Amino acid sequence: MLRSRIVPCLLIDNGALVKTQVFDRPKYVGDPINAVKIFNEKEADELIVLDISATKLSLGPNFNLIEKLAAECRMPLCYGGGVNSIEQVIKLVDIGVEKVAISSSAIAQPTLINEMIAAVGGQSVVIVIDLYKKKNLSSIDYQLCSHNGKKFYNEDPFIFFNKCQELGAGEIVINSVNEDGLMQGYDLDLALKIKALAKIPVTFLGGAGSLQHIEKLIENFGVVGAAAGSLFVFKGKYRAVLINYPTPAEKIEICSRALKVYNSNKGASSV
Amino acid sequence: MMCVVDYGVGNIQALLNLFNRLGIETKRACTGKDFNNATHFILPGVGHFDHAIQKFNESGVKEPLQDLVLGSKIPLLGVCVGMQMLADGSDEGNLPGLGWIPGRVKEFAKNPESSKLSLPHMGWNVLHPKKNNLLFSGLGSNFPQFYFLHSYYFDTKEKEDILATTHYGINFASVVSHQHIYGVQFHPEKSHKWGEQLLKNFSKI
């Protein structure tokens, strides 16, 4: 039986490991290579590394650093940040990155998705969709954005989601801007909206503050990728930097317990 | 000497790093000359089947590898698309496979039992050994887990060639072997302690 993936997401800003809140106020939390070594020991399911200064400062990927991270990483690695050409994608895969994530480039030049699939295979193509939640009087809207939540687009995010999966992307990461770093739980309403559309693997990022939040996500979505930044780099209410991750036994227990709840609810709702 | 065949496709470095950590003498082999003193081969592969086969055919390693694997019976382990390349062919492409393990690579999306699931099959899944094999030594009986990332699976012609299965809508062959030629659908180089153990076991075959 396929298990949900519990995925630490590391943010890189000018070569250092940081953590943001609502895509802002990056706080220095350490050295990325060291973090990868700790996640190796803890047998993390997968790692997502996002360079948050690469697109903002119009820099390409920091290949030197990524190559070192990939060599150290004993689990699958997904890299995103500043990727906008097929040459960069091929180079990233060559230096040992399993999955390449694109975000603003997927919106600006969707043909890059086709080129990536042809060159490295759809399984290695990840689209990160940054979503900003807007609360109106009567409804909740989601707006597509990029550039660390600074640039907004009019394209309907759910139509965009469908477009990405129909083009043949291997995975979509849904990144909730409003929830980033607040540790109040995933946006479960959003998860259910995405659930109705998803035909390919989906990973949610933004909001996880406890293992219970991950469990709730699986209970609502079924098998899923549950990614988190703050949860795995901070400990306690004073946000002391301490890299942590559930033990293999805890992880298996959380995932299978939550999936049972999901399956029994699904059974109940289809009657 | 463990030889990881580098024909321009696949995560060679991750395999080299892992063998390095295990203290197993390993080299990256780009041409037939690099195959001197080879005791084991790893055939990696990712991406599209035809792309991998084409790169392999153009690389010049095909003939010498074939001589050593089929002629001198040196053990080989295909990984992911490297495993699929061992088949006669694949529904993903038009080019013939190596045909070293009889069977064909098929698509999950075309199988009614798996087509409704999210694809690719991505993440950690359980290995169910069907036969005793040195490859599984020390994995423990507690459902070893491996990292998968694929949309196609190997449908072997002979049931005896299946060493282990994994469930994703269907029970598909996740480990195959035909004599001294092996293939694993998952990524042992990215599967923590289970992957390490399996590769260590292969080095002793």
Give the termini distance of chain B in whole angstroms. 13 Å
Number of domains of chain B: 1
Helix and strand content put the structural class of chain A at alpha/beta
Helix content of chain B: 10-25%
CATH superfamily of chain B: Class I glutamine amidotransferase (GATase) domain
CATH architecture call of chain B: 3-Layer(aba) Sandwich
Q: According to CATH, what is the class of chain B? A: Alpha Beta
Strand order of the largest sheet of chain A: 1-4-5-6-7-10-11-12
Q: Bin the strand percentage of chain A.
A: 25-35%
- The averaged pLDDT of chain B comes out at 94
Write the CATH fold name of chain B.
Rossmann fold
> Main sheet of chain B, how many strands, which sense, barrel?
8 strands, mixed
* Continuous helix count of chain B: 5
* Helix residue percentage of chain A: 25-40%
Portion in strands of chain B: 25-35%
Strand order of the biggest β-sheet of chain B? 2-1-3-4-13-12-11-8
Characterization of the model:
The complex is a heterodimer of chains A (271) and B (205). Chain A has one domain (5-270): TIM Barrel, CATH 3.20.20.70. Chain A has ten helices and 14 strands. Chain A has helices spanning 32-41, 63-72, 86-94, 104-108, 111-120, 157-167, 188-195, 211-221, 230-233, 248-270, and strands at residues 5-13, 16-21, 24-30, 47-51, 77-80, 99-102, 125-135, 140-146, 151-152, 171-176, 202-205, 225-228, 234-235, 240-241. An eight-stranded parallel barrel of chain A has the order 1-4-5-6-7-10-11-12, surrounded by five helices. Chain A is globular and about 50 Å long. The model of chain A has no long low-confidence stretch (mean pLDDT 92). In chain B, strand 11 (162-168) and strand 12 (170-178) form a beta hairpin. In chain B, strands 2-1-3-4-13-12-11-8 form an eight-stranded mixed beta sheet. The longest helix of chain B is centred in the C-terminal third of the chain and has 12 residues, at 192-203. Chain B has five helices and 13 strands. Chain B is globular, with a radius of gyration of 16 Å. Chain B has helices at residues 12-22, 49-59, 62-71, 81-84, 192-203; strands spanning 2-5, 26-29, 40-43, 76-79, 89-90, 103-107, 121-126, 128-129, 145-150, 152-156, 162-168, 170-178, 181-184. Helices cover 23% and strands 30% of the residues of chain B. Chain B is α/β, with parallel strands linked by helices and 205 residues long. At the A-B interface, helix 5 of A face helix 1, strand 7 and strand 9 of B.
